Amino acid sequence: MPVHNRDIAEQFSRLADLLEVEGANPFRVRAYRNAARTVGSHSRGMAEMLEQGEDLTRLPGIGQDLAGKIRQIVDTGHLPLLDKVAQRTPPALSELMHIEGLGPKRMKALYEALEIRSLADLKQAVDRQQVRELAGFGAKTEAKIGRGIERLAGSAARTKLMHAEQIAAPLVAWLKDSEGVKAVEVAGSFRRRQETVGDLDILVTASRSSDVMERFVRYDEVAEAVSQGKTRSTVRLRSGLQVDLRVVPEVAYGAALYYFTGSKDHNVAVRKLALKRQLKINEYGVFKGDERVAGRTEKAVFDSVGLPFIPPELRENRGEIEAASMGRLPVLVELDDIRGDLHCHTNATDGHHSLEQMARAAQELGYEYLAISDHSRHVSVAHGLDSRRLEAQIAAIDRLNEKLGGLVLLKSAEVDILEDGSLDLPDAVLTQLDFTVCAVHYKFDLSRKRQTERVLRAMDNPHFNILAHPTGRLINEREPYDIDLEQIMQAAMARGCFLELNAHPDRLDLNDAHCKLARDIGLKLAVSTDAHSTSDLEFMRYGIGQARRGWLQADDVLNTRSLNALKKLLRRS
Ligand code: DGT
Ligand code: CA
Ligand code: CA
What we know:
DNA polymerase, domain 1, Beta Polymerase, domain 2, Beta Polymerase, domain 3, 7-stranded parallel β-sheet, globular
């Protein structure tokens, strides 16, 4: 079975976790974590690279030792060092230490004092109120861990969109290779670009003699065939994700695609509309009595009920049907509208690539500008920038801009918003930047009132421009902090500040409803990747998916502007 980059990354990050719980040398832990990130986000498969005799030590942060370990995993599926460590320290601790309120030190304490080695152990200890008794825990922490356990149990079932894409792409290619297949498309929440998906719904149209169903259940990654029929089968993949496959005739393809794209609420509302016209819509077509009046394309389905085509991202029954019937659908922003990225990191702080490497990657995407926004010092990343180092970076950007053709690097910084609402770098250096990206990175548990005031106060600083990842949530991992976003958005409007839609697939922060709120208020958003490596710049498409779900048009997005127009918008008067 082929070993995917994800599998390799997972083994390295589990190893890093376990070593961290054991209290190993932090540099060693970080090396494995970086390796996990490098491999996990690399666009080409390690297995394929090794097969072609390529030198893995050319990847950032991968030396001889790590390259050797990658080879071990590719060759055997196992990392012997991980197996060895897992004999000393229960592997489940790797997952548990990521529960909010825990972390390696507390995990170690729980393991040693209460012999916690599984989620069930931990839950029991919380239920029996044993955790609060330990030094450094307390009732509040115990309650937080309890909520973390619930979230872990509830969220494990939903897969992040990026992961779903990585799983779907090779499967779709495999199905397309079947005899007689005409079209393959992933519908459902995946097509609506929801941030997480429950399962994949794949639609195929093929000649009657096609072997696509057999090929589907024979796919290498299938762990279990849940059900198998002539036109519909369900499997569970090794990753745990379920996939529904339906084979439909060409005359019904549009109707099926429409039906299985959903959402269910949207479908129900449109079906009601159809009933008023004495039409019946189902996955086989649109019917007047027994006659099929539409079904071959989605557009024909919409036509039959007198609606223009509604993009999948809008199909949530949140007003899109009304807007469509009044001819007021937004013209949604597209990836092609994006002219630059306003938030990324280099290896001056916690990024993996140099200024120049990031610039070249942005050039390859055809961007006009890329803002470099390395961390200020407060945040707990290695080597956060102080004034002196930021000034050195500013000078380096000036030099690089001289020789870059077509792309302008913008000078920025991701400045911490301190607990009292002040910014983590002095005005004297902030004034030398083109703009700032400001963020809350700690003290997540302030009250709603205090958290809101903290950010409002930060915005009072005339050097504040864009609020990064405004709620701080990490999908499936960390709850948003409590903050009055509407008030923040209104204040941003009044002060000439902006909010970010962070496109990182683990964040997607703002969410879709927040984006819609910003649009209703009239506040423009920056859609930014927060790239920590050159390949992360590709995360833009997830941000665009979320922006579209939030009804945003090109005009609502800052970085669809030309450099001049952007600079004008960012200037606070
Ligand atoms: P998920 O998988 O939880 O992320 O969300 P979806 O939207 O992909 O939902 P799923 O996989 O249960 O079903 C795929 C689509 O099939 C759904 O978006 C709409 C359609 N569908 C499923 N069940 C029903 C139903 O009972 N009535 C109608 N009208 N449509 C349904
Ligand atoms: Ca689904
Ligand atoms: Ca499904």
